[in-house]
Amino acid sequence: MKSIANLLPEYFADVVTLANQVHGDNYLNITTLMEMYSRGIKDGINAGFVAVSDGKVVGYRLSYAAGQWPLDKWCSVSLWPVAPQHMAYFKSVAVAPELQGQGLGSTLLKASVAALRQQGALAGLAHIWQQSPGNAAQRYFSKAGAELLKVHPDRWLHLSESANYICPLCGNRCHCTAAEMALTFADIE
After folding, report:
1. Origin, by domain of life (predicted)?
2. Residue 91: phi, psi to the nearest 5?
């Protein structure tokens, strides 16, 4: 049986293992996860979640609270449906390959949206991996109600160059494309 729980340090090692399995070597480590985790907590509300089955993490959702994440050159602020101080960020999600397509990602997203709303966010932004198998990531986020704002080629190339990220498709020089998408929380039941 799978249960959803807040992301806590006791789950960090399993989250790092799952993230690197799904997204590629050096995608995540304990140090970067600790920073991401802290960006998701605001007013005592944690917007990070894990799915646990038989004591093992089988999915996670890392989200940043509005106002607690850096804008960068891949943020098309003028296209956003809300002001930056009200925009949360969906940083990363992964589901164990054997459980993908069963709604676990959507369950984690709903838990995160509920927490982000409690923190005061009005919408959430994501940079979706377009090269996911069958573009499943963009389909999943579109199904949740997100709208495509802009496409960003070579979105993760800087991680290959600065953090030795190994993309599961491109190898040590990631040329994958990101779909910048916004999910307005008022539209979610």
Report:
1. Bacteria
2. -75, -50
Distances (CA, A) of 122 to 77, 113, 117, 119: 14, 9, 7, 9
Helical residues (DSSP H) of the chain, grouped into ranges:
12-23, 30-39, 104-119, 136-143, 157-163
pTM of the model: 0.90
b/e map 16-38, b = 16+ CB within 10 Å? bebbbebbbebbbeeebbeebbe
Domain of 134, CATH number, reads 3.40.630.30
Determine the structural domain holding residue 106 and report its residue range. 2-187
pLDDT per residue as tens digits for the range 27-37: 899 999 999 99
80-119 per-position pLDDT tens digit: 999 999 999 999 999 999 998 888 999 999 999 999 999 9
The interaxial angle of helices 30-39 and 12-23, nearest 10 deg, is 100
Q: How many domains does the chain have?
A: 1
